[in-house]
Amino acid sequence: MQLKEKLKTQIEPMRENVRSLIKNHGDKVISEVTIRQAFGGVRGVKCLVCDTSNLDPMEGIRFRGYTIPEVSEKLPKASGGKQPLPEGIFYLLMVGELPTENDVKEITAEWQKRSKLSDYLITILESMPIEMHPMTQFSMGILAMQKESIFAKKYREGISKYELWDPMFEDGMNLLAKLPALAAYIYRKKYKNNEQIKPDTALDWGGNFAHMMGVENPEYKELMRLYLVLHCDHESGNVSAHTTHLVGSALSDAYYSLSAGIDGLAGPLHGLANQEVLRWIMSVKEKLGGGVPSKEQLTKFLWDTLNSGQVIPGYGHAVLRATDPRYMAQREFALKYLPDDETFQVVSMLYEVTPDILKKHGKAKNPWPNVDAHSGCLQVYYGVTEYDFYTVLFGVSRAIGVLSQLIWSRALGLSIERPKSVSTDWLLDQVK
Ligand code: CMX
């Protein structure tokens, strides 16, 4: 395929850049580590390399140099649609160039060809208890497919380390092809009496995902495309990306690596926050007997949450210090398609009151909303009310970014990760 051919031509020049950087400037210091950082989640330490995206604290994410408004404008759209196609962002992340309509069509066709879930996987999914969290089922489904790994097979047969990117690319493509079908299967099984819906081959990847979930509203298909683009990549230091890279650095294949990354995404401080936001809003509404709460009522609930030692989900960020542009892109969508929706009104009101409360509370370095503060209300509007499924949607999108990063990690032969740990006694000695 065209994408793979283009990728192949980029690998050797990039390897040369890396070789030259290490040979000529390998000892140049780019970061220092303080004791606070060693205990504090290595925040801000520059020790990873990521070429697919870059996160600026004030501006937010750029995918291969392009902001969210830029990718929204420049990436190909579905016929008659206005939102960027996720196939296009995958192309952009992989090779750093904007795809043509044909490039995107080729990826859609390729993913369709590879999308069928094997019978053994269905048997495994069927055996999972209905009450099992969708993220657990999703991660286990990905892991179960490991027996299909071309990377693992080639490694066993004996492959040169310079060729490892090729089977990693194939595994990545196979996984991305199957993830919407896997996620939709879990959704229909858990919430829709296991009435499964066959794929529609006339649709693109995101549109078909919406269709298989059972939501046929064309607006929701557009939302799905936007959603899958917005959540895809956020540099390599976030938990899901870093975990995927870390596991892959041991030459574990894409199935092991992605499954582990998805497990990280399932944490409430990371991707699960999108579920928690909706859960929080619904519990507020329930306590008040329904309807839209007043600002005073919301303020009280926010303080109650903080005073009971819990976080306000959807607010704050480890890197961002301004409103997340992914939040703004979703807000624009809501203002256009569902301005009068009740849950959106609560989300908007939270945007008005929460930052000031977090500033008064005085702990969070970033009082502004992140991507997860907004995504749930859009889902509810289109009938996807089962909020413990929301992080699976995030996971399908995040796979685009972390798998692109993983393919490049193998192309550049990045080393197995092994930072040095020190003991608390050693640190106490250092400051004596
Ligand atoms: N509500 C209450 N307290 C918060 C807070 C929030 N939304 N965000 C940060 N804080 C607190 C921290 O818990 C920390 O408290 P302690 O000093 O008692 O440990 C303090 O403020 C300083 O934290 P920080 O440096 O501002 O934030 P971190 O980099 O440590 O953590 C994050 C970042 C996202 C985990 C945190 O802001 C948070 O817990 N937010 C709520 C959960 C959330 O929305 N996560 C999704 C992030 C996006 C994503 O990955 O999907």
Task: Describe the fold and architecture.
With 432 residues, this protein is an all-alpha fold. The protein has one domain: Citrate Synthase, domain 1 (Orthogonal Bundle). The chain has helices spanning 2-25, 35-39, 68-74, 86-95, 101-113, 119-126, 134-144, 150-157, 165-191, 205-213, 218-230, 239-248, 254-265, 273-287, 295-307, 325-337, 342-361, 372-381, 390-411, 424-430; strands at residues 53-56, 60-63. Helix 9 (165-191) packs antiparallel against helix 19 and helix 11 crosses helix 19. It is globular, with a radius of gyration of 22 Å. The protein starts with a helix and ends with a helix. The mean pLDDT is 98. The structure holds carboxymethyldethia coenzyme *A. Carboxymethyldethia coenzyme *A (CMX) is lined by residues 43, 238, 269-271, 273, 306, 311-318, 363-366, 370-372.
